[in-house]
Every structure is written in structure tokens, then in C-alpha cells.
């Protein structure tokens, strides 16, 4: 896909903000939420509209441009990168909803944002015209900056049987944000709980995960771009891996800078930059970071090429996206660990990017999308010819 001048302007604007985001890292940790000023500055660049339909003022950008922006933001501050990623990807899913729902979100204000919590911890019961939804959901990153939330829920019929798994789009007046986010990593993400007392959600404001598993959604009738024909799980799990790769990029830059200035007292005043073993560690870390990024982006590009040719994306490729996504997360964190361990005591100081990236990356690793064994087992099972549910990928 060709990058338009408007999208290039967004990427340039994001890069101009990186020093500011880095300076606000400690503020976000103290507030336990990304500072409002950072969200407003990102909004001003057009970042949150990268994956938004053109019909509602968006850019329908190449997802790789979106991921590139996220990676850069996370290289300055992990929490800002994380929130930017998960909030910034939601317009892509909203574009799959019925147009009635899209109009409700963006009809009056095209800058409206949504947070999410997809684990089906709530309950939805079928009723006339829609569903009765209730429950509590955890880890809704960036929810303080959003006017809607996307919630996963199991759907029950009148007999109490599970008949579907859907995403429910809920406006701010119908849910409560409960402040529970007291953690050691990704402190600035404000990933609080969402509580919904029983409320009615119209059918048009829901999306079946079975349908998205087939790369389909009612919104495709009005949003015809190839962007909205990509697999949900490819787009969303890459959204979770990308900020961690960005954290590794930032940790690498800070480690190299530290080592250029560092004099090692334990080695008779030797300059760390002259240590051949330090050079080897830097080379290994940079290769792991580059490999994580290249595999992630190359897989998305391969899916895009198939969609552009009107061909179905094979299950093997969708599983490969998940394989390389979880391993990309692992590679990035292993690189951060190696750099952190080799950085000396100064890396422990509060305020350094490196110690925050170390904490933030390990916090991001516990996200369900980064469960390596499950993703790798599914890939291996498919290679052995075992049946794998494509709806999960």
C-alpha cells in the first residue's frame, strides 16, 4: 500500500512527540494513567484515525504504518505505546460493526475513542431486538480516555446454553470504571475494571466472533477497503506484540547510550564501550529485536497481498502470524533482559527508561495474546494435520 501524505504527516507528528512522551514517563507511573496531554497530542496528529474508515474522517492506513507509529511511541514510553496501540486499533473493529453502530460512535464526533476488554467474563442473554448484558471485565487499558467500550461476552439462550461469543459495544453512560490498577509494570496504562449492570444492547451494536473469525462483518458492506478483510486475530495480537518490540527498541537505544558513557570500576576503569563482550551482547540483542519486527510485519504483508488478489488467507498463515507474534514478544523481552543485566547499577535508578521498559515488557507478556504455549501448540498441531478451529485465528 502506498503511504499518503496525510499518513506520513501522522508518522512525522508522532516522532516529533517522542521526547515529550519520554519525559512524561514518570508522570504516567505516578498518575497510573497516560497523561491527558499525551492523548490530546496524539489526537492532534491524527494517530487515532489511522485505522478509522474514511467515511468517518479516518485514513484507512496500511496497518504496518499504524504498527510503526506504535513501535516508536513505545520506544519513548511503554505505557503510552501500549494504550496508543490498544485504543488505536479499535476503529478497525468498529468498522466491522453495522453502520448504525458506527454512526452512533462517530456521527457527532469523529475523535471518539473506545477501550476494550475481550475476555468473556460477562454474560449476555438473548432478548427481543438484542441482548441483556451484565458483568465485570478487567484490564481495560486507556478506559479513562474513552467514551465507549468493547466487551467480550458469552451469549446464552433461554435454556441457559452458550450459543455464541460476541463483542458488545457499550456507551459510557452504561458502564462504570472501577479503579483497581495498582501494579508494578505498565502502571501508566490505567487498565481498570469495567462493570455493567444489566443493560440492553441492540443487535446492531454487537459482533459475532464466529463471523470475525471468517474475516467478515456487516460493516464491510459500507467499508469496502481491503484493510477490513484481514483476520481479526492477526491484527489484534500484533497490536499486543508491537509495543513490547517498541520497548525493546527504546531499551536498546538507552543501553548503547549508557555504555558509551560508562566506566566500569570493577574492571580497572575500563570503558564499557571497549569491552568486546558488551559489543557481542549489543549485536545479539539488536538481531533479536530486528527479527521480531521483520517476521511480524512480513506476515501481515503476506496476508495483505492475498487479500489484494482476492484470495483466501490460509489457516497455516494465520497460525504463523500467531507463532511469530508470541515468539516476537519473547525475542523482544529476552533482548531487554540481556541489555538490562549488562547495564550496571545505574540502570536500576528510578526515572531511567531501561528499568521501566524491563517492568513494562514483563507486564505486557502476561496478556492472554502472548500465551506462547497455546499459540505454538496450535501451529504445530496444524502442521501434523490435526484439525484447528480457524475462528480462533
From TrEMBL:
Matching Pfam families: Acyl-CoA_dh_2, Acyl-CoA_dh_N
Record-level GO BP terms: fatty acid beta-oxidation using acyl-CoA dehydrogenase
GO molecular function: acyl-CoA dehydrogenase activity; flavin adenine dinucleotide binding; oxidoreductase activity, acting on paired donors, with incorporation or reduction of molecular oxygen, reduced flavin or flavoprotein as one donor, and incorporation of one atom of oxygen
InterPro entries in the record: Acyl-CoA_dehydrogenase (IPR050741), Acyl-CoA_DH_C (IPR013107), Acyl-CoA_Oxase/DH_mid-dom_sf (IPR046373), AcylCo_DH-like_C (IPR036250), AcylCoA_DH/ox_N (IPR013786), AcylCoA_DH/ox_N_sf (IPR037069), AcylCoA_DH/oxidase_NM_dom_sf (IPR009100), HsaA (IPR054617)
Residues covered by the Acyl-CoA dehydrogenase/oxidase N-terminal domain: 4-106
Keyword tags: Monooxygenase, Oxidoreductase
Cellular component annotations (GO), alphabetically ordered: cytoplasm
Presence of keyword Kinase: no
Residue span(s) of domain Acyl-CoA dehydrogenase C-terminal: 239-371
Family to which this protein belongs: Belongs to the HpaH/HsaA monooxygenase family.
Protein name: Flavin-dependent monooxygenase
Provenance organism: Nocardioides humilatus
Taxon lineage: Bacteria, Bacillati, Actinomycetota, Actinomycetes, Propionibacteriales
Amino acid at each position: 500500500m502506498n503511504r499518503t501524505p496525510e499518513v506520513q504527516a501522522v508518522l512525522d507528528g508522532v516522532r516529533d512527540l517522542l521526547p515529550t512522551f519520554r519525559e512524561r514517563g514518570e508522570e504516567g507511573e505516578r498518575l497510573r494513567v497516560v497523561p491527558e496531554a499525551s492523548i490530546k497530542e496524539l489526537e492532534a496528529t491524527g494517530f487515532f484515525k489511522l485505522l478509522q474508515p474514511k467515511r468517518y474522517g479516518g485514513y484507512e492506513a496500511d496497518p504496518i504504518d499504524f504498527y510503526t507509529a506504535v513501535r516508536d511511541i513505545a520506544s519513548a514510553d511503554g505505557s503510552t505505546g501500549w494504550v496508543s496501540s490498544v485504543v488505536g486499533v479499535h476503529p478497525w473493529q468498529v468498522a466491522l460493526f453495522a453502520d448504525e453502530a458506527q454512526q452512533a460512535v462517530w456521527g457527532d464526533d469523529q475523535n471518539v475513542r473506545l477501550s476494550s476488554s475481550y475476555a468473556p467474563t460477562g454474560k449476555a442473554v438473548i432478548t427481543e431486538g438484542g441482548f441483556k448484558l451484565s458483568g465485570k471485565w478487567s484490564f481495560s487499558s486507556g478506559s479513562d480516555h474513552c467514551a465507549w467500550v468493547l466487551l467480550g461476552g458469552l451469549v446464552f439462550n433461554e435454556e441457559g446454553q452458550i450459543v455464541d461469543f460476541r463483542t458488545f459495544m457499550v456507551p459510557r453512560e452504561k458502564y462504570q470504571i472501577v479503579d483497581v490498577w495498582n501494579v508494578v509494570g505498565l502502571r501508566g496504562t490505567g487498565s481498570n475494571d469495567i462493570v455493567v449492570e444489566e443493560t440492553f444492547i441492540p443487535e446492531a451494536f454487537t459482533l459475532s466472533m464466529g463471523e470475525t473469525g471468517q474475516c467478515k462483518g456487516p460493516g464491510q458492506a459500507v467499508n469496502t477497503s481491503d484493510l477490513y478483510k484481514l483476520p481479526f486475530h492477526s491484527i489484534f495480537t500484533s497490536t499486543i506484540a508491537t509495543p513490547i518490540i517498541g520497548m525493546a527498541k527504546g531499551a536498546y537505544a538507552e543501553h548503547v547510550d549508557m555504555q558509551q558513557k560508562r566506566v566500569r570500576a570493577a574492571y580497572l576503569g575500563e570503558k564499557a564501550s571497549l569491552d568486546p563482550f558488551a559489543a557481542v551482547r549489543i549485536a545479539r540483542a539488536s538481531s533479536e529485536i530486528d527479527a521480531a519486527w521483520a517476521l511480524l510485519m512480513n506476515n501481515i504483508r503476506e496476508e495483505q497481498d492475498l487479500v489484494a488478489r482476492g484470495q483466501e488467507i490460509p489457516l497455516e498463515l494465520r497460525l504463523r502470524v500467531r507463532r511469530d507474534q508470541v515468539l516476537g514478544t519473547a525475542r523482544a523481552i529476552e533482548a531487554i533482559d540481556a541489555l538490562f543485566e549488562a547495564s550496571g547499577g545505574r540502570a536500576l535508578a528510578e526515572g531511567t527508561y531501561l528499568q521501566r521498559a524491563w517492568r513494562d515488557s514483563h507486564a505486557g507478556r502476561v496478556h492472554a495474546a502472548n500465551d506462547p504455549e497455546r499459540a505454538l501448540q496450535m501451529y504445530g498441531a496444524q502442521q501434523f494435520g490435526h484439525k484447528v478451529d480457524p475462528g480462533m485465528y
